[in-house]
Design brief:
411 residues, five-stranded antiparallel sheet, alpha+beta, extended
Length: 411
């Protein structure tokens, strides 16, 4: 009956019988421990083989283990950056991202031809160091302004793994930061130098004693100090808006009423062109979900720009309506010199000015439209600028409609 069973199997069965007897006779806390111990021994004996011969791994287990290993191409396809496998100086494998960047013909080519860059050729021709080395920076691979980090590591059989990591966004962000600091420093340094110069002049006995000279210099100093104040306020405002850009507003704002308030504020301020403001507000325009103070700032900036750059005596037209797509639109139109097409894409950049001299003379900080853009983005809206040289400019803001519960409706 037991023929065909090995000694290990018979021993294991015997131990299981012993365990069963122990279950019957032992009625104490030792019972679970004993059963576990005997059962473990039996399982171990069966697992190590059923015969008395040497232990061998079944062939089907080896086949399953081999088939479970993923293909090298499948492995590198799972990597989101361009990856090449190089053997004897030639590309043997490349993932789809690398083929899209360098071309589908690179497999089988010399890697120095596949990655056409002097820095890459020099690095790939050099022997691999014993310890991981610093990545090589490549500029111009793919497009002229793309920045890449090339990492090279050794693999079995003398192969090399070449990985490219796109750092274009990092370089662009760093460049923006450097430009912003440089521009802000320049904008603050210019009025400060003017103020210091006039203070020094007023310190002279002759200039300081002349009431007309003193009055003129003090007015210039006051204007420059106000310019610095506006710039600092705009910088603080821009920083605050950026800090809140991921926090959606939740308040319903009636833009028709807000336009009336802004117009009244400008009239009360007795601006030279406040009487030129005209408003065309459609009836029944729904509220939008927004931050009332920030939307007021949008209107002040847009209307202020229209008054600065429109011709005196021409209307500054504010219009509010709901478009067929369901968005609420506000437009501010001036009749001025207009803006050339090449300047339109850069109008919302910080400190960008079409005419720097005229902008500074009008009291602009170069941050007005940048602030408007960030506020509109926080409100999940859109900003559009259209201009005709010699005719004027229209700036349009599109905002989603407010829904009960603080949600926004987009149709």
């Amino acid at each position: 009956m037991l023929q065909g069973f090995g000694s290990r199997t018979i021993t294991a069965i015997g131990l299981v019988v012993v365990a069963a007897i122990a279950v019957f006779f032992l009625q104490s806390d030792l019972q679970p421990a004993l059963i576990t111990l005997v059962g473990g021994i039996a399982a171990a004996l069966v697992a190590t083989g059923t015969g008395d011969g040497p232990i061998e791994t079944p062939r089907h287990v080896e086949t399953l283990a081999a088939s479970a290993l993923p293909d090298l191409q499948d492995v590198i396809e799972a990597i989101v950056e361009p990856v090449l496998i190089v053997a004897d100086g030639r590309v043997t494998h490349a993932n789809a991202v690398a083929l899209g960047l360098l071309g589908k013909h690179i497999v089988g080519e010399d890697v120095r031809v596949a990655i056409r860059h002097p820095g890459a050729a020099e690095r790939l021709a050099s022997p691999l160091p014993l310890t991981p080395s610093e990545p090589t920076t490549l500029v111009g691979v793919g497009t002229l302004d793309q920045h890449w980090e090339m990492h090279v590591r050794g693999a079995s059989g003398g192969q090399r793994i070449v990985q490219l990591i796109d750092r274009t966004g990092n370089y662009a962000a760093e460049r923006m930061r450097v430009d912003f600091v440089a521009n802000a420093s320049h904008e603050l340094r210019t009025p400060l130098a003017s103020i210091l110069g006039y203070i020094e002049t007023l310190g002279d006995d002759k200039a300081g004693e002349d009431p007309q000279v003193r009055g003129r210099f003090l007015k210039i100093m006051f204007d420059e100090a106000r310019r610095m104040q506006r710039l600092v306020e705009d910088l603080i405002s821009l920083s605050r808006i950026e800090a809140e850009k991921y926090r959606l507003p939740a308040t319903a704002v009636d833009l028709g009423a807000l336009i009336g308030e802004v117009r009244s504020e400008l009239l009360d301020a007795q601006h030279a062109r406040s009487a030129d403001i005209v408003a065309d507000v459609d009836l029944g325009v729904p509220s939008v979900t927004g931050d009332r103070a920030q939307l007021s700032q949008v209107l002040h900036n847009l209307v202020g720009n229209a008054m600065k750059y429109g011709r005196a005596g021409t209307p500054v037209a504010i219009r509010l309506w709901r478009d067929p797509a369901g968005m609420v639109r506000i437009s501010v139109t001036d009749e001025g010199d207009g803006i050339a097409p090449e300047h339109l894409p850069r109008l919302t950049e910080r400190f960008y000015r079409v005419d720097p001299g005229r902008s500074r003379a009008a009291g602009g900080t170069g941050l007005g439209l940048a602030i408007v853009k960030h506020i509109v983005e926080r409100h999940r809206g859109r900003l559009d600028v259209a201009s005709v040289v010699g005719t004027g400019t229209t700036v349009t803001v599109m905002l989603p409609v407010h829904a009960p519960g603080g949600a926004v409706i987009k149709r």
